[in-house]
Amino acid sequence: MTKLTDAFKNKKAFIPFIAANDPDFEGTVNNVVALAKGGADIVEIGIPFSDPIADGPVIQAADIRALKEDPDLPMDTIFDMVAEIRKQTDVPLAFLTYLNIVFQYGYEAFTARCEELGIYGLVIPDMPLEERGELEPAAKKHHVDLIPLVTPVSGDRIEKIAKAATGFIYVVSSLGVTGERSEFANDLSELVTRIRKVTDVPTAIGFGIHTPEQATEMAQIADGAIVGSACVNIVAEYGKQAPAKLLDYTKQMEKAVNAHPVR
Amino acid sequence: MTELNLNLNKNTTGRYGDYGGQYIPETLMNELDRMTKAYEHYKNDPEFKTELHDLLVDYANRPSLLYYAERMTKDLGGAQIYLKREDLNHTGAHKINNVIGQALLAKHMGKTRLIAETGAGQHGVATATIAAYFGMECEVFMGKKDTDRQKLNVYRMELLGAKVHPVTSGSMVLKDAINAALQDWTKRIDDTYYLMGSATGPHPYPLMVRDFQSVISQEAKTQLKEKTGKLPDMVVACVGGGSNAIGSFANFIDDPSVQLVGAEAAGKGVETELTAATVERGSNGIFHGMKSMFLQNKTGQINPVYSISAGLDYPGVGPEHAYLAKTGRAQYVGITDDEAVDAFEYIAKMEGIVAAIESCHAVAYVRKIAPKMRKDQIIVCTLSGRGDKDVSSIAKYRGVDIDD
């Protein structure tokens, strides 16, 4: 059982997301620590990318802010942020980024750094099952889970993806890009049921969740909820004051996902 | 015109050495798979092939001329120059070849809405045209910078019934238009076909675009044989994403005596930051669904690129071009804005042809290389499009103020 899978043990997981270097180095460290203190079970750190094709306007804007001062922001600076974070919390961490960032650093070197710093998983939206072969050996060697995405239109791919999964499975709530929304695909339960038939790896639903009510609803379907744009909005709105707000929000959301007893 | 051979290349895996692949969000994977299977089926379907052939002949005005540029040949004093006149196609560029093929596929797949990205606007116009022809809904994504510098094409698309979305994210050019089109597609897959215009993106796009554009070299090879009895010594075409170039090269790749040259947009110079010369300045990477060569920084962020030509300022090349470059089968050379604008004026005065500024990158290379070749040697240069759309921006470049 991996550290990420462990985070779902005996409870529903709340998984917030923020973008690295938004607004800056210190802000990132403080924001992640606040999310951990608030009760996040896993924190997803987005590595900013110039062209985030799977992300909606809110996370796109975060990436632009993160790269504005330094478009050449080195990956090593982001690893340094994680090292700072690790001085203050042992919350399970995962990176969300696009494959080119990992490819440029080198698959072996990147996953080795992840292992060293306690980054237990990678969510890579532009790396479908068929393309993970090139990264998988290094990821396995360094105990980094490659978190796959399953969507309402994955159809007969669901079982194939689920069987290959470790860590957790990211269930995409609806079509389109990331960002807050009021409606989700109506067959999510069926999707999760199909996943559970072939694997014990936990599931977390993401894309669009922002209210506690939605978090409660999604946590009844799956094993956890992922919240990105809502957290990023807090960072955008409150800047240096974001950590306190993120802490409150996380407390509320963590409670919401655990509003009902675990199955 | 003989029927187009859609089985020219036996490699249909979507991998070109290390390049190619399908690096795309899960949401689109099943749809790409459906598209791949549909294409594999229909490219061998006699009815589809007949429809494609009829559209290419009766609607697109194929075959396009292979024109002996006698004045240019004499003036440059070296190789004989033949121009493959894709500018004479309906809608004025090679883009129509691919658009007819893919739209026909979309129709057979039961799609009713076409979306597309466009840089200079030629692909958007071609897509809007075929959408009108088939009675399909059409939305085109175009960088805000490009909608500003190509107003005429924006109006043409609207005239044809398409909705044009100016894209204001990122650097507001072609790559951002592709991002926006991909994002729109992930929202609405059922009835929508993303009609990609270049030989880029995830499989099966590079394969399909190459096959549909290979009509250029299939015709050129036959036409040149009829005129001279020979193969060309060199084929030259401009490269942004690389659709007209891959189509111009396709039927000559297995003829080792034919040198293949892609003219990239060097912008202000290959060594400057204001360039779009991907093969010369770029490195291997993964973006827009493919592993290929890209202009990027050390971290892997995609660079903003620059060229006077809206159709060539893309930070990558199609995966087959990356492969041809790596294996040395094709050479890629940078042509600056200045050289391209000089060529724009040169070919207008010399041959009476106003060619697209994109195509003039290829013409500029021909001006450099032809004098160094023997008189019995032959160059085929693809004029990918006509230059009406560029007249006002070239005037501006030369400091002439005209109302547009």
Automatic annotation (TrEMBL), chain A:
UniProt cross-references to InterPro entries, sorted A to Z: Aldolase_TIM, RibuloseP-bd_barrel, Trp_synthase_alpha_AS, Trp_synthase_suA
Pfam families: Trp_syntA
Active site: 44, 55
Keyword presence, Amino-acid biosynthesis: yes
EC number: 4.2.1.20
GO cellular component: cytosol
Keyword tags: Amino-acid biosynthesis, Aromatic amino acid biosynthesis, Lyase, Tryptophan biosynthesis
Reaction catalyzed: (1S,2R)-1-C-(indol-3-yl)glycerol 3-phosphate + L-serine = D-glyceraldehyde 3-phosphate + L-tryptophan + H2O
An example Gene Ontology molecular-function term: tryptophan synthase activity
Domain of life, per lineage: Bacteria
PROSITE patterns linked: TRP_SYNTHASE_ALPHA
Pathway: Amino-acid biosynthesis; L-tryptophan biosynthesis; L-tryptophan from chorismate: step 5/5
Family: Belongs to the TrpA family.
Job of this protein: The alpha subunit is responsible for the aldol cleavage of indoleglycerol phosphate to indole and glyceraldehyde 3-phosphate.
Assembly and oligomerization: Tetramer of two alpha and two beta chains.
Protein name as it appears in the record: Tryptophan synthase alpha chain
Species, as recorded: Secundilactobacillus silagei JCM 19001
Gene: trpA
From TrEMBL, chain B:
Record CDD domains: Trp-synth_B
Entry-linked SUPFAM superfamilies: Tryptophan synthase beta subunit-like PLP-dependent enzymes
Gene Ontology CC: one annotated term: cytoplasm
Signal peptide stretch: none
Cofactor requirement: pyridoxal 5'-phosphate
One Gene Ontology term of the molecular function aspect: tryptophan synthase activity
UniProt protein name: Tryptophan synthase beta chain
Organism: Secundilactobacillus silagei JCM 19001
